Amino acid sequence: MGRLRMLIDSLSHPRVTEKYPYEPIPIPEDFRGKPEIDPEKCIGCAACARVCPPNAITFRDDHEQGYRVLQVFLGRCIFCGRCQDSCPVGAIKLTKEFELVSLSKDDLYQVVKLELAKCVRCGKYTVPYRYIKYLMEKGPKILKYELLLCPECKSEVTTLIKYHYAQEVHE
Amino acid sequence: MVDVLKKSIWVFHLNSGSCNGCDIEVLDVFTPRPDFERFGVKLVPSPRHADAIALTGPITRAMVPKVVEAIKALPEPKIVLAIGACACGGGIWHDTYVVVGGIDEFYKILKEEYGMDPPTTIYIPGCPAKPEALIYAAGILADIIKQKQRRREDVIREEDEEKRKIETIIREEIGSRHFLPKIIVKRGPREGSV
Amino acid sequence: MQDIKRVIEENNGKIVVEHDYFLLVEVSREHVRKLARALFEAGAYYSTGVGSDERPKNGFFAMYHILNHEESKKYIVLKVETPEHDLRIPSITPEIEGANWAEREAHDVLGIVFEGHPEPERLILPDDWPEGVYPLRKDFKYNEKVKPVRKEEKFVEREDALVLPLGPFHPTLHEPEYFEIYVDGETIVGARYKGFFVHRGLEKLAEGRLTIHQIPFVAERICGICGYTHMICYCQAVENAIGLEVPERAEYIRTLLLEIERIHSHILWFGVVYHLLGFDTGFMHAWRIREKVMDSAEILTGNRKTYGMSLVGGVRRDIDEDKKEKTLKALREVSQEMKNLFDDVLAMKEILNRIEDVGILPKDRARSIGVVGPVARGSGINTDVRKDHPYAAYKYLDFKVPVYNGCDVLSRYLVRADEIFESIYLIEQVLDQMPGGDIMVERFEVPEFSVGVGATEAPRGEDVHFVITHRGSKVYRWRPRAPTYNNLPSVPVMLEGEHLADAPAIIGSIDPCFSCTDHVTIVDDSTGKILFRGSLEDAIRRLKR
Predict the structure, then answer these.
(1) For residue range C284-301, what is the model confidence (pLDDT) as tens digits?
(2) Looking at this predicted complex, what is its ipTM?
(3) Which CATH architecture best describes the domain B9-186?
(4) Distance from CA of C317 to the nearest CA of B (A)
(5) Chain B contact for A101, CB < 8 A?
(6) Which residues contact A21 (CB under 8 A, 6 or more apart)?
């Protein structure tokens, strides 16, 4: 009896098999697919690399060529979307793309290289120009002077300032 | 791709320490809606009957000998489908103490300790990979679809004018700090006293 | 409530933290055994135990025993400290049997010696792990690679029975685990389980590399079927530790997704059981219906399985009217179709015969083993974390907990069937009553060394997470415990005396999830570890007599 009913049930269903890959499938609006950096918008702050749970986004500073290299490895990405939440300028977005199959590991990378600025005091590479530009507009006014200093010079100058103030008080 | 795969691909499913997400999707793709069997793809219970291994999971250390055995048993040409973030790149646990960390790290062990060449690998990212992504992979293997994903590399250089503008503004800012010149004045006697 | 406090105080326990959800009780080494006994007699049962290396804080090692007291709706956390030079704590296993594994695990990973433990053998560390290396001590790095030692695997021969190996890769198992089933003719006389192939070093990873906001994503990947409940459980543990109130709307959204997950997990289970019974038509129908649930999850969260929706303090994405409507429409269809499927299947004599009066787990055995979730409810035990320790929005909602007294596979089948419809009813209420407002608390302080316990009702049963917070948005110690850990020991009881052909359906009936269970242990080496060697076979022999 149950079998008969099941047969009737099965026959009463329309075709459920989708036509993919010959026809596209509907993808919902908020689908979390391939993360993509818009190189024109990216400021190279590396906030995304810091929040990324599986370290799929990494960054390193190439001090010889003078670039900050941001790298997205889709093979390790878990599509959580934390990078999108943390980006201050909306440069990294999760797209609706899920067809990421690739025959070589190399194809799974997206690399963005941003030119680094030089320290005005010692001439070493510091942070990308884009980042400085962003901080000049949005960052705290009081710290503008240290934007073009490398970390060592920055701490040196800060101690000098403190020393200077201490001397003044002493006198 | 490989000529052998123009026809039906038989797949052996190998879980190497995955969370089950991808394994369920591997099963799911054989159910009525995605219906993988349209392409002649079939799950087989032994690697000796298979054309390809569907590998999920980051390959835990306990699994290494078992995965090696399975790859040894696979007939030539050996093909591995690395499914999901864990198999492709180690996923969220790529660097822990009991995880090898993805198929490429595993191939290093395969080469060094077992002296075997790495098999052809198809990377299927996703966490978990959508059933449609698996169908897409089969489409690529069977030459129905062309691969869409390509390496992208952008180099952003600033205009020289722009750089100068930024530098001028900041130099002005440094100049406007009243205490900076004083520091230089202070420095003289300090150095002399040493 | 007063009673349990009196019990604690009479037995020299000191209540340090009194939270709505749990009590943190400090007790000295001399009195722990007596207190544990008294609590057990007062109706608390053992949930899990956590060892912790607290030398950076005060030079002590600590052992936390977590007991569940359903009557007062509280977890009781007993904390016992011991100095570094004298790593001895009296074992409470002679008083409460359930503490056995937890204490052995704490010995393996931290080197704490439990005096008077009946089987002080290694549990989770492999036999070839070097003596004196304790991976969860703070001086062991999370990404330290210990040189693997290869060992030949031994195949245990038995004279009285035929040994039938099953796994680690087998067509009926989709996860690597290994069963050795001992058969005498057609009848099963014993079983042995060997697992921990899926151990991924997750607890140490959480302490090492990740921050408080990254751990939810690891927690979600403990299991690919019931991951979201682990995520919520972790978030609740941290929220309890830092005393954070989650906005009401976030609680409703969490409940909605937890129930969606329960529906998809249960339908998946039905498919798998039909498949194990050789009824592949049912499998295909169940999974066809399941696609609708997966689609609504994709619409609501952006992914079919890993929802990624929660962080400590709330949820990440809001739900609008359009999504609500689509979900409701899909679930109504699911409800109708599942009803038809269940009616059709239960009208088939051949299916019913395979599951009725098969895999018996009597009620008293179920209680003493401490099984949870649908396995317990199928044996007539009325237990459900959603009722016993209300969390998320369950306190505002109306629902029933299905309990069946058949103690067989059919009862567990019916419990899950009822739960699907109960979950759909819950989702309708959630979507109807969902209040407006914020979905996330953005700013909060994380205190140092604050203890928290979180529990959720996973599709497979009670899921408990224990957290100690650390400065700099880190976690000092995190210990998840999945329901399969409690349910697995019941399998030999069910298998005893059954036909071999029924074994897959019986093992399947507890809805085992090995990736959930294996992560709980700490270290695995090249061989994995035999879990049940002594205890399981003994249990079966005892039963036979």
Answers:
(1) 999 999 999 999 999 999
(2) 0.88
(3) 3-Layer(aba) Sandwich (3.40)
(4) 19
(5) yes
(6) B132, B135, B136, B139, B144, B145
